[in-house]
Amino acid sequence: MHRKVPKFVETHLDEIIERWKQLMKEDHGDRFFQIMPDEVVEKTSHEFAGLIVSNLTEDGQMYESKLHDFSERIVRLGWSITLVMKAIENFSDTVYEMLWEAEVINDSNVAEYFEVLNGWIRPLREEVVEAYSNTWERTVSLQKIALQELSASLIPVVDKVSVMPLVGTIDTERAKLIMENLLEGVVRHRSEVVLLDITGVPVVDTMVAHHIIQAADAVRLVGARCMLVGIRPEIAQTIVALGIDLNEFTTTSTLQRGMQEALALTNRQIVEVDE
Amino acid sequence: MAYRSSVDIHTEWDIVAARQLGRNEAKKIGFGTVDQARITTAISELARNIYLYAGTGKIEIERLNEKGIFGIAIIASDEGPGIADVRKVMEDGFSTSGGLGAGMPGVKRLMDDFRIDTEKGKGTTITAIKWLR
């Protein structure tokens, strides 16, 4: 009984694939086959069928490693998971239907066959879902690291003056990182003035302002001064509307103006040299 | 039925998604950069309040057209604990979470119309509207 099915799949493979393709077309229209080149569909479906056959002919370990390779490759093709799930379902439906038509299955043994078919499809589905979720998790964690790398580094510009350019959305996690890097950098570079540049921050709401104010307070505690630079006109207006009090800050519209102020605070200035 | 779209708020990153949606809608309606910043900041405040105090909820953005005057409505709704004292949260500097306490009165100042419907234990719906002039 268990052997009959893989044998059946093996011998009727071309017909199964033909009908499976038909089914996919009915579900998704021609779009499905437009987005996938013919030879990829052909190759993948044959491989998939081969995999199903090998499930019952080869030993467990061999099958598992094959299954793993296969699902990894499916993920790399970049199809949506819903589509792949549908493809698997349609494939098993097709096999089931054809087994009925060939009268391999009848009313008396249908339960047993159902068990066999399920035994193939379930691990495949689980493996594909797992491969997909692993890929997503990996992407997310890599992006998190990438984001952290571009988060908040303190750059010593001239003696006693450092700049921290902030780019992108500030969430709680980044706010913490900004604070840490700021304090550590101020102490390490012996900065007297730190310029926080918010040109690249899209929205300054009360939470962002709160974090900036806290960071500035902490900087004051380690003996330096914090200046807020890069305040765009629309940000200035929203800060005023929100009623956020930034009076304790020196603020400027651009980093350039901020630099001049910072140099003035440390009793220096930029002069042109006569040749 | 007016055009409406929404973002569910579950995590801190959904706040960014809500903001992005609001900014795009505001741009489509024809708001300038200053009003776009006002609208996105208001959304940011409301979404953050949902995240902080109710845990989950949603932000809906609706395009308005009243007798030829266009506008945008932000509807922030949750089924959280509700607001115990509405008068108090509208005071500047009142906060239960150690924040600046400028969020709610700030949103009111950023937008043109502002309404709070809240019931203790049932949840809160805040509607804020900005008209295009």
Automatic annotation (TrEMBL), chain A:
Sorted UniProt keywords: Phosphoprotein
CDD domains (alphabetical): RsbR_N-like (cd19413), STAS_RsbR_RsbS_like (cd07041)
Pfam families: Rsbr_N, STAS
Domain of life: Bacteria
Molecular function per GO: heme binding; oxygen binding
Start and end residues of each STAS domain: 151-262
SUPFAM superfamilies: SpoIIaa-like
InterPro entries reported for this sequence: Bact_StressResp_Reg (IPR051932), Globin/Proto (IPR012292), RsbRA_N (IPR014792), STAS_dom (IPR002645), STAS_dom_sf (IPR036513)
Matching PANTHER family: RSBT ANTAGONIST PROTEIN RSBS-RELATED, RSBT CO-ANTAGONIST PROTEIN RSBRC
Protein name: RsbT co-antagonist protein RsbR
Organism: Edaphobacillus lindanitolerans
UniProtKB/TrEMBL annotation, chain B:
Pfam families: HATPase_c
SMART domains, per the entry: HATPase_c
Annotated keywords: Kinase, Transferase
Biological source species: Edaphobacillus lindanitolerans
Family matches, as Gene3D superfamilies: Histidine kinase-like ATPase, C-terminal domain
Signal peptide: none
Keyword match Transferase: yes
Lipid metabolism recorded as keyword: no
SUPFAM superfamilies the UniProt entry points to: ATPase domain of HSP90 chaperone/DNA topoisomerase II/histidine kinase
Protein name: Serine/threonine-protein kinase RsbT
Superkingdom as given in the UniProt entry: Bacteria
Molecular function terms from GO: kinase activity
Every Histidine kinase/HSP90-like ATPase domain range: 34-133
